[in-house]
Design brief:
- The protein has helices spanning 5-11, 36-50, 81-89; strands spanning 21-24, 30-33.
- By secondary structure, the protein is α+β, with helices and mostly antiparallel strands.
- The protein has a two-stranded antiparallel ribbon.
- It starts with a helix and ends with a helix.
Length: 90
């Protein structure tokens, strides 16, 4: 353990918050977004184009799911994990 933790903290570079963002305007001009307010707007615009807001008034009813074969407990030993992992990756 260091004698004075202040010495260690002064040598570690950590950043807090959201780093600068690269963005593009509608006409194709590239920007570097530095201010927090503009970062929020940029991220909001990006994620709103990816995620949609679904109507909560038209939620479908799910059919009853009848389980014909119950799920049984599976036991895996530690020495089989690497083998199973390789099988999954194939």
């Amino acid at each position: 353990m260091p004698r004075n933790s202040g010495d260690v903290k002064s040598k570690i570079k950590t950043s807090v918050g959201i780093s600068d963002l690269k963005s593009e305007t509608d006409d194709g001009k590239k920007l570097l977004v530095k201010e927090d307010v503009h970062k929020v707007l940029t991220l909001s615009g990006f994620f709103s184009s990816v995620f949609i807001r679904e109507a909560t008034t038209e939620i479908p009813e799910l059919e009853e799911n009848i389980i014909r074969k119950p799920i049984t407990e599976k036991r895996v030993s530690n020495n089989k994990i690497p083998k199973k992992t390789k099988e999954i990756k194939k």
